[in-house]
Amino acid sequence: MTERPPQRTPNRQLAALIAEAGFSNAGLARRVDQLGLEHGLDLRYDKTSVTRWLRGQQPRGTTPALIAEVFTRRLGRRLSAQDLGLDACAPVYAGLEFAATPEEAIDIVGGLWRKDSGSHAELRKIAFTPAGLVVPSRDWLIGRADERVARGGEPPQTPRVPPQGRPGVPRQRRDTDRGPGHRVSGGDIAALRSVGELFRALDHAYGGGHARQALVRYLEHEAEPMLRGTYNEQAGRRLFAAAADLTRLAGWTSYDIAAHGLAQRYFVQALRLSQAAGDRAYGSYVLVTMSRQAVYLGHGREAVQLARVAQQGVGSSAPPVVQALLHAVEARGHGVLGEVRACTASMVRAERALEAARPGDEVPYWARFFDEAQLADEFAHCNRDLQQYRAAAQHAERSLQLRAPGYARSRLFCRVVLATSRLGLGELEQACQLGAEAAQAAGEMRSVRAVEYVRDFERRLEPYRDAAPVRAYRDKVAALG
């Protein structure tokens, strides 16, 4: 007697969500196939496939996570495969989750650091996805600082025991590895801050690829044990703030080497850590960073939305310098979209806000870079994108005059914008000279963005490829190797 195959249980959870989302079976299959294409998968699901899932068949591989992401996008809330009555599998957008608790946030970002510090080259090939911006930015905007971030109890009050040895000579303390119960000190948190300044300076001068891997290893071996250590509320907030800053910087350096999907994940996790820190203003800066990446990748609409979420999140109480930064970043998004009026309005707001700043104002450390040189740089980029080349050239020249030499990569970008503007004005020889200077600077950095700026300029030179200045430019660049 042959055994009958086990009866499958109809998937009522999936059926309920299909009804809530208003999908037809064919419509759900089509969306899963389209999402698969975003991840390089050639899927061929149809309405019959969905019927089988509803009857209890389990889809294979990463498909449950893809189906969950389709519903997440449609319904505006994070759903897992299990929520759909499907077998658990690794989330297709691992790292883009906005954690529900500080503990979960530590788990997610710690996993990201560990994978990135190893030989997981595929992590640096993950694609950027505009849809992955929606839920985290919304959750940050409507969320509040976590009620409690402290871990472990207060240190016990033990009587002071005199050190052994000669009177008045304390024993030397031996450094030990941080264990799970390590008590985080003010010195530990100050060290995180100092390391951030060091890596930031390296990034500005030599590009994100120069020390990115060292930064990620530092996060794995130093920051994560601290986050899993013991600390009170006050120290915990400061610790999460320092970890958020370093995580944002890891994302920024990843962005600079064109690891865009990885950078996006770091930014989302930095946003979540800033919420645990209770630092709303720093969260707005993370959103600004995310907006800049969206601008670079040509996603102007998302860039504008992120800048506006940041503005709404901090309100009108932010210092004028911060307000100027937020409006300038929104202007960049409008510039990419070619929206002249909206871009100009945002630029005017940014300029007025910076003019309202006073020397004695209390400005967050992360906003102190935003000065007249940076504002002129933002305006130059906006005017270039709007093909207003004369204004772009004027702003770029002003920025280069004011910008400190330590900001080598920013100066390179601005020089390329100036070269492009000179080209747009028909000043071919001057454009090629500026372009050659930028190409030389790019050769001294480990920055994919720097190389891409130069390549963009070279593409614009193509219509003039037979002109003598262009041939001379190509010879100079070839000589640089």
In words, what does this structure look like?
The protein is built from 20 helices and no strands. It is mainly α. Among the domains are: 73 residues; 141 residues, no CATH class; 81 residues, no CATH class. α2 crosses α4 and α15 runs antiparallel to α16. The N and C termini lie far apart (76 Å). About 5% of the residues have low confidence.
Strand content: under 5%
The biggest beta sheet is recorded as: none
Overall radius of gyration: 26 Å
Total strand count, please? 0
Number of helical segments? 20
Taking pLDDT < 50 over at least 5 consecutive residues as the criterion, the unreliable ranges are: 155-176
Helical proportion? 55-70%
* Element-by-element helix/strand order: HHHHHHHHHHHHHHHHHHHH
For the terminal residues, how far apart are their CA atoms?
76 Å
Shape: globular
Average pLDDT level: 90
Oligomer: single chain
* Structural class assignment: mainly alpha
Keywords:
single chain; 481 residues; mainly alpha; 63% helix; Regulatory protein
Brief sketch in words of this structure:
It contains 20 helices and no strands. By secondary structure, the chain is mainly α.
Walk me through the topology.
Blueprint lengths: L11 H10 L3 H14 L8 H8 L8 H13 L26 H16 L16 H9 L43 H21 L5 H16 L5 H24 L3 H18 L2 H17 L3 H15 L5 H18 L2 H17 L15 H14 L3 H14 L5 H17 L3 H16 L4 H14 L6 H13 L1
Helix pairs in contact: 2-3, 2-4, 5-8, 5-10, 6-12, 7-8, 7-9, 8-9, 9-10, 9-11, 10-11, 11-12, 11-13, 12-13, 13-14, 13-15, 14-15, 15-16, 15-17, 16-17, 17-18, 17-19, 18-19, 18-20
Protein name: Regulatory protein
Organism: Streptomyces longispororuber
